[in-house]
Each structure stands twice: as structure tokens, then as C-alpha cells.
Design goal:
alpha/beta, 7-stranded mixed β-sheet, 7 strands, 235 residues, Rossmann fold, 7 helices
Length: 235
Amino acid sequence: MNVLSVMAHQDDELMCLGTMLKMRARGDSLHFICVTDGSSGMVHAPEMTRAEAAAVRDREMCALAERVGATYQCLGEKDEFLYDTPEVRVRLIAAIRATRADAIFTHFYPDYNQDHITVNHLVRHCALHLPFPMIETEAPPLPSTPAVFLIEPSGGFDFLPSHYVDISAQIEEKRALTRLHQSQDEAFRAGLNKGLDDWICEVSAPRGAQVGVAHAEGFRPMYSRGLVKGYSILP
């Protein structure tokens, strides 16, 4: 199975990364798409230009993808100024088709960040069009719509998982991969006095406690025709 993370920013994949590692272990192929360039993420280094910041975020995400044997595409839209436009829709459809995605992880709605909300809307629209031939892309249409799962938003507002994945065995690898987002780790330490890898454990440990394991990631399906499957997807 081809498993795809479609997120607004480089590091948003962390809320499903443990599950993706578990899916890789069973033989699935991993893919990442970031819709924006992440250039607004340097809150600890405001002197950095957008071009410099985007280059840093791209290098970090490339390193993570290489480490896990995944593909990575960045659509390069301006961070914090993402809009749902016809051009962005077609580019996202093309990018998803290129991965041959069977399952997609993306943002929950509602969310604190408007870019995240926009990506949620984009994925809802684009996923339904992936099998249809009316929008032409270099990669052919998919044979069917993928399953789509929504990740936990920061703070967990209005998010009650319907699906839990035990990532206790993957947590140390996930923490190590998280530290590849060095710029965001520095931003967390400057603003919150904790590392990014500490923060992800503060999310996964309570979810794990809810289902009797050390660490878990929680998800909800995107409720839309064709995007909910009648068979098991998550490990």
C-alpha cells in the first residue's frame, strides 16, 4: 500500500509519523507532500529571509524522507498565505496521483492554523477527483479514491479519536526523526523550553493511556463518500 502524508508544513507529519513507520514495517511505501514552503516557521530567527527559511525547512524534510526511504514533494506555496485556488488544486491532484496513494493522512478541521484548515479542504476536494479523468495530469488517475485519515491538531481542540495506533515500539525512532527538524526544535526550545521530541511524547503518551499502551497516535476518518473504507487500513 502507498501511504501518503499531505500536510501544510514540514514537521506537521509528526502526528502520524509513528503510524507511518509501523505501516512501513508491514511493507507499505511512504510518501510526503508539503503544500507550503514552511518559510514562516523561524520564529526564533526572524532575521532569516523567506528564501533562506524555506531552504532550511526543505533540507530538514528531505533528510527525514531519505532516512525513512520515502518520497517527498513540496508544492512551495507561501507559508501562512495558502489559498484554495484552481491552480493549487490541480497541482495537488497531480502530486497525489504521482504517489499512487492508497491512504492519506492530513489535517483535522477545525485547527488553530488557517494553512492547516486550507489543506484539509484541499484534500477533501482533490481526493474525490483523483480517479476521474476530467483533470489531466502527467500521472494517470488513480483506480479508486484513497482512504483519508485526519491527524490530531496541536492542543487537541474538538478532536476525539475514533482510531488509535499503538506506536510504543516506534516512539524512539519517531523521536530521533523529529530531531531532524532542527530549526523547529530550536524554535520550541526558545519559546516553550522543551524540545520538539518532548512535545510529541506529551501528545502520544496521553493517547496511549486512553487505550492501555505507552504511546499511541489518534485519528479520525474524513467523512466523505469514497474516503471511508469498509476494510482495515491502519496497523
